[in-house]
Amino acid sequence: MRFASHLILGALIAFVVTGHVQAQTSHPSTIRVENAWARATPAGAKAGAAYVAVINNGGSADRLLSATAPVAQKVQFHTETENNGISRMRELRSVEIDPGAKVVFKPGDMHMMMVGLKQALKEGETFPLTLTFEKAGKIDVTVSVAKVGAMQSGDMKSMTHGAGGPTKN
Ligand SMILES: [Cu+2]
Fold first, then answer.
1. What is the DSSP secondary structure assignment for residue 46, as one 8-state letter?
2. Can you tell me the distance from the alpha carbon of 96 to that of 149, in angstroms, rounded to the nearest whole number?
3. Tens digits of per-residue pLDDT, 37-94?
4. How far does the centroid of ligand 1 lie from the alpha carbon of residue 89, in Å?
């Protein structure tokens, strides 16, 4: 009995190890980040919002875990809901990206809140943003700054909702 249980344990470890290696090599190209943009901020603003579209072309879900940008102390994921005319923001610890889904961050909805802005974001400028995914790892994007209060970056494609629809948690 002892021998058999060791065999089973050995097989289990082998399975876990191969599963892990597969997860690391098969995912990096499946997540695409498009249309990164931010709203310009007035001088002295302590926070700003950035938006991206995340597309998962892979066969399994991935999860956006964190984001960093040199222009801010930290970047949080926020969701915004309106109830009886009152707008509320709630922080999301992570954002699930289902297989085949396109998750669009946009004004009045999910956004990246750049807290502790170190500089004003000026229209026409760009800054780097690094997104970290559970499986795809780190993805660097360049964020273009649009007008103060802009509702979109000018790319109409960003306004269409994919078949999978946005995923929140
Ligand atoms: Cu916010």
1. S
2. 27
3. 999 998 889 999 999 999 999 999 999 999 999 999 999 999 998 888 888 999 999 9
4. 6
Query: Where do the domains of the chain lie, and which CATH numbers do they carry?
Result: 29-159 (2.60.40.1890)
Distance 5 CA to ligand 1 centre (A): 52
In the reported structure, the alpha carbon of residue 87 is separated from the centroid of ligand 1 by a whole-number distance in angstroms of 10
- 157 CA distance to ligand 1 centroid (A)? 23
- Tell me the per-residue pLDDT of 127-145, one tens digit each, with 9 for 90 and over: 999 999 999 999 999 999 9
Task: Give me the helices (H) in 1-151, please.
Answer: 2-26
Ligand 1 centre distance from Cα of residue 80 (Å): 7
Q: Residue 156 pLDDT > 90, yes or no?
A: no
Structure tokens at 158: 């960003």
